[in-house]
Design goal:
It is a single chain. This protein has 142 residues and is of the alpha/beta class. It has one domain: 2-Layer Sandwich (Nucleotidyltransferase, domain 5), CATH 3.30.420.140. Helix content is 46%, strand content 25%. The protein has a five-stranded mixed sheet with strand order 3-2-1-4-5, with helices on both faces. It starts with a strand and ends with a helix.
Length: 142
């Protein structure tokens, strides 16, 4: 069994998956959406990935503001979480995603990815950071 990590944004959903030992997270893909409020195709693709990777749980990035308040993106993320729960029946855990996109962009910059190409990868790398943070926290609890 594996865990799926999601970075839910207004136009994209970055996707990462853990290894079977729940030690490391790896980037899978970025699901691109044409319209922010239309999620049918996005949910269908996530369901395909759940089957393909034998996923037992989902970790969903929760975009709190830097002052720890919850804004509009949090409301949309909570609504997306409810849709995912209904559709997949899996446990979905929210994980603080503050600064993951900034960190992902910095990693891409440090590895020499050109500015115009970073958008192709940043959301999946952010999903990796979300999932890896969760996996590390679980490991530290043990």
């Amino acid at each position: 069994m594996r865990i799926l990590g999601l970075d839910f944004g207004s136009k994209t959903v970055g996707v990462a998956v853990s290894d079977e030992l729940l030690i490391t997270a790896g980037a899978v893909e970025i699901i691109r959406r044409e319209h922010e409020n239309k999620l049918r195709k996005t949910l269908a693709r996530i369901e395909q990935l759940i089957k393909e990777y034998d996923v037992s749980k989902i970790v969903l990035g929760f975009p709190k503001n830097m002052n720890n308040t919850e804004g509009e993106r949090c409301e949309k993320t909570l609504a997306f979480k409810e849709m995912l729960e209904r559709r997949t029946g899996l446990e979905i855990e929210l994980w603080d995603e503050r600064l993951t996109t900034v960190a992902a962009d910095r990693v891409l910059m440090q590895t020499g990815v050109r500015r115009e190409n970073r958008k192709k990868y940043v959301d999946s790398i952010a999903a990796v950071f979300i999932l890896q943070g969760y996996l590390d926290a679980c490991k530290n609890k043990e």
